[in-house]
Amino acid sequence: MEIIGYVAAILIGVSLGLIGGGGSILTMPVLVYLFGIDPVLATSYSLFIVGTSSLVGAARNFKGGNVNVKVAMLFGMASIATVLITRKVLMPMVPDVLFTTGSMVVKKSMATMVLFAVLMVFASVSMIKGRKQADVVPEMSGSKTMMRLLIQGGAIGLVTGVLGAGGGFLLIPALVLFLHLPMKQAVGTSLLIIAMNSLIGFAGDIGSVDIDVQLLLTVTAIAVAGIFVGVALSSKIEGGKLKKGFGWFVLVMAAYILLREIYK
């Protein structure tokens, strides 16, 4: 299963390189079902893998002028604070056993995977439906714009902190539809925000969780290598069809996780 897991790790990076997202959606199932890591601990692993991979992707986009640093910093003000509060304060307060209904015991680890599957459903729908491209880059000013950025940044931070997911499927629509960034710039900016959130969230976990460093670095290195494969393939494959196909794949995986967690 570990060999399959390493192969799947390549797909994490390939998806980031091809469509600018989707990596975090694959990371948790790979860690939990192929490497046998506890779901709660896997969120820490996911933060590092997703953060490092996104940082590499953001660097490539920055060189091409496709990262709006000002937007990323404004989002980061709220999202990073929310990630740290979630990882350091909220998550430790959640008991291992949430509740019992009949003969069914609902544990923290089970709830984490079910919530992640729900996140996957929303992400898959976003990919299947697609997004409209905007052509106008707005001025970052005004109290309404600031408030919108802070609220959306906080929401992304909560998702990242609880589930170890980057939240790109939430970020990119927000950047395109609400802030009117062009799609390429939205993808690059999203990767920078995800990298900041995830790596700072992981830093907050250091010392409080037991991590297999060798496994973590190996999976991360493979995922990063996959990004370059994805970038190379992106010029040969039509992005719209690829994203929809990946969306259907994510939807099937979400159904599998829900069935496995509820009926195991």
Architecture overview:
- The chain has 264 residues and is mainly α.
- It has one domain.
- Helices cover 77% and strands 3% of the residues.
- It contains 10 helices and 2 strands, in the order ααααββαααααα.
- A two-stranded antiparallel ribbon has the order 1-2.
- Helix 3 packs across helix 9 and helix 4 packs parallel to helix 8.
- The longest helix has 25 residues.
- The protein is globular and about 55 Å long.
- The chain starts with a helix and ends with a helix.
- The relative contact order is 0.22.
- About 2% of the residues have low confidence.
List the defining traits of the structure above:
two-stranded antiparallel ribbon; 77% helix; globular; mainly alpha; 10 helices; 264 residues; single chain
Give the arrangement of secondary structure elements.
Layout lengths: L1 H18 L3 H12 L4 H25 L5 H25 L3 E5 L2 E4 H22 L13 H21 L4 H11 L4 H23 L7 H22 L4 H25 L1
Antiparallel strand pairs: 1-2
Helix pairs in contact: 1-2, 1-9, 2-3, 3-8, 3-9, 4-6, 4-8, 5-10, 7-8
